């Protein structure tokens, strides 16, 4: 068996960042990555129309660690150019004008609910009742009574059934029943910090619940959202290149055996690595398939690993040869309660000619699509879009498609915490289990997105640095 001070399992941003920091402390690290490439949920696909980020791409202005790593590795940033074109709604197989929703006969909501844009219902309710002011308060036992679902919150606050139904359609990806409000508010509260940075407007007026847009407001040369020139995966690739032969790709970990003195990590190819410490930088969807044996058991940690739910996102990336929305007069982008979810038309800033677009499937829509084989899913979403908008026929050129639940190294796109799980284990689930430490975006305390992966990599490096 090869010997190291620390074996890190998973070469996403969290694993790579912990490796960078522990190496800087003089420790011998080995990073084991199941995939052929590093990066995990930061993945850039080369297409006929250039690189497309099928995972993370948006870097917020307050992503201190990500921005620092981008600079350290000599990468170049550009302001986000994925501005979404105006959103409409397609509900009960009918096109709906959100501006006149209040008077629409399909609107079954009551009182002041009637004026809420139907595709923003989930978002609006979440924002209205968010009691958190600071980014760490989601873990504060003072808020433990809010460890409930969005449906339970809406029932408690007296919303109509029709409003609850709309929220189920527009709840931001992770479901009206499946996710604790504390998990949702953690992200919302962290997001509001970004908007407080210097001259950024306090609240950006938006007509859609996803895809935060660049506000075109530069602060210290930085847009509110930036992208990496050439694709976001350049960052993990540069981090891994610097770590040299410490990073091993094609190494699928199958078993971790540990006691208080060290751990032995075995891969499916028969190779074994022994170390004083081990870091799991894996989503729990895949960690739960790894056999963990320990001289001292940790039932609460096992519960977290085996039960934490994950949401899915599936996206189809398209080139639109001509803006068909000019022909049918409907909004370029839309949210629907139908089987393809959302269509995002991306502004090319001329209004004419080719545009990029995405079909974005989240929540129940993504679950249904994930049950299909790749080609079947592709054909289905394209034909469904043309059924809804015949003017799009012949104008959609397929670029690439990614369904994160079908990626065997991910089995989902992002963690969730079910109602009751913040109180059950979220406060302590990042504590080390014997010599195993836990990194990954799902072990965040304060941050979100890529920055939370970096935050967790930093935390485990400090934990191990203090113990070594
Ligand atoms: C569609 C999508 C869009 C996103 N957009 C943004 C965005 O715009 N901005 C933003 O900030 N964040 C975004 N995110 C979130 C961001 O990508 C993640 O928070 C972050 O990349 C997670 O990093 P991680 O290290 O925690 O995990 P991962 O990136 O999941 O890394 C885990 C690694 O473990 C490896 N692995 C799995 N099983 C094994 C095994 N048995 N043995 C060894 N290795 C294994 C995997 O291959 C992977 O490389 C997005 C995510 C998705 C899915």
What is the secondary structure topology, with strand pairs?
Blueprint (H helix, E strand, L loop, with lengths): L1 E8 L3 H12 L4 E4 L11 E4 L2 E4 L5 E2 L3 H9 L4 E3 L7 E5 L2 E3 L24 H9 L20 H7 L4 H10 L10 H16 L28 E4 L5 H10 L3 E2 L4 E6 L4 E5 L4 E9 L3 H4 L3 E4 L4 H9 L2 E2 L1 E8 L3 H5 L4 E4 L5 E5 L8 E8 H8 L3 H15 L7 E8 L10 E2 L5 H6 L9 E3 L10 H19 L1
Parallel strand pairs: 1-2, 1-13, 2-10, 7-17, 11-14, 13-22
Antiparallel strand pairs: 3-4, 5-9, 6-9, 7-8, 11-12, 12-13, 15-21, 16-19, 16-20, 17-18, 18-19
The protein binds flavin-adenine dinucleotide (FAD).
Describe this structure in words.
The protein is an alpha/beta fold and about 475 residues long. It has 3 domains: about 1-80 and about 230-310 and about 415-465, FAD/NAD(P)-binding domain, CATH 3.50.50.60; about 115-210, no CATH class; about 315-405, Polyamine Oxidase, Chain A, domain 2 (Alpha-Beta Complex), CATH 3.90.660. It has 14 helices and 22 strands. The chain has helices spanning about 15-25, 65-70, 120-130, 150-155, 160-170, 180-195, 235-245, 285, 300-305, 325-330, 365-370, 375-390, 420-425, 450-465, and strands at about 1-10, 30, 45, 50-55, 60, 75-80, 85-90, 95, 225-230, 245-250, 255-260, 265, 270-280, 290-295, 310, 315-320, 335, 340-345, 355-360, 395-405, 415, 435-440. Strands 1, 2, 10, 11, 12, 13, 14 and 22 form an 8-stranded mixed β-sheet that branches. Strands 8-7-17-18-19-16-20 form a 7-stranded mixed β-sheet. A 3-stranded antiparallel β-sheet has the order 5-9-6, with helices on one face. The model has no long low-confidence stretch (mean pLDDT about 95). The protein binds flavin-adenine dinucleotide (FAD). The site of flavin-adenine dinucleotide has 37 residues, from helix 1 and helix 14. Flavin-adenine dinucleotide binds near residues 9, 42, 55 and 282. Belongs to the flavin monoamine oxidase family. InterPro entries: Amino_oxidase, FAD/NAD-bd_sf, Flavin_amine_oxidase, Flavin_MAO, TAT_signal. Its cofactor is FAD.
């Amino acid at each position: 068996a090869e010997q190291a001070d620390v074996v890190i399992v998973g070469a996403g941003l969290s694993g790579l960042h912990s490796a960078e920091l522990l190496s800087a402390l003089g420790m011998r690290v080995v990073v084991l990555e199941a995939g052929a490439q590093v990066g995990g949920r930061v993945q850039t696909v080369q297409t006929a129309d250039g690189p497309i980020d099928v995972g993370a791409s948006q870097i917020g202005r307050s992503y201190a660690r990500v921005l620092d790593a981008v600079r350290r590795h000599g990468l170049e940033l550009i302001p986000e150019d994925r501005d979404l074109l105006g959103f409409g709604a397609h509900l009960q197989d009918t096109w709906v004008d959100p501006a006149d929703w209040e008077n629409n006969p399909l609107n079954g909501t009551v009182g002041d609910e009637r004026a809420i844009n139907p595709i923003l219902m989930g978002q609006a309710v979440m924002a209205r009742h968010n009691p958190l002011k600071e980014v760490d308060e989601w873990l504060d036992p003072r808020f433990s009574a809010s460890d409930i679902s969005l449906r339970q919150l809406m029932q408690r606050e007296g919303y109509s059934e029709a409003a609850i139904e709309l929220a189920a359609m527009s709840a931001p990806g992770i479901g009206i029943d499946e996710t604790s409000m504390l998990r949702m508010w953690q992200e919302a509260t962290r997001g509001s910090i970004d908007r407080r940075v210097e001259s950024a407007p306090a609240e950006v007026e938006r007509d859609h619940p996803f895809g935060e847009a660049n506000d075109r407001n530069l602060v210290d040369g930085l847009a509110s959202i930036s992208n990496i020139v050439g694709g976001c995966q350049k960052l993990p690739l540069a981090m891994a290149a610097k770590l040299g032969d410490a990073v091993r790709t094609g190494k699928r970990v199958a078993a971790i055996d540990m006691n208080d003195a060290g751990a032995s990590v075995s891969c499916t190819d028969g190779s074994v690595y022994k170390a004083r410490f081990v870091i799991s930088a894996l989503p729990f969807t895949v960690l739960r398939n790894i056999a963990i044996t320990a001289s001292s058991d940790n039932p609460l940690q096992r519960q977290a690993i085996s039960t934490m739910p994950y949401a899915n996102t599936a996206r189809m990336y398209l080139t639109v040869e001509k803006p068909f929305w000019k022909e049918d007069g409907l909004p370029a982008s839309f949210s629907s309660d139908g089987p393809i979810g959302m269509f995002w038309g991306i502004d090319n800033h001329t209004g004419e000619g080719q545009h990029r677009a995405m079909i974005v499937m989240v929540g129940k829509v993504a679950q249904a699509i994930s049950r299909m084989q790749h080609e079947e899913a592709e054909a289905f979403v394209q034909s469904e879009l043309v059924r809804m908008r015949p003017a799009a026929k012949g104008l959609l050129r397929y670029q690439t498609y990614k369904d994160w639940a079908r990626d065997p190294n991910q089995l989902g796109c992002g963690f969730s915490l079910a109602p009751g799980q913040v109180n059950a284990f979220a406060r302590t689930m990042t504590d080390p289990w014997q010599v195993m430490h836990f990194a990954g975006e799902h072990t965040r305390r304060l941050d979100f997105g890529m920055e939370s992966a970096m935050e967790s990599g930093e935390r485990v490096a400090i934990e191990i640095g203090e113990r070594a």
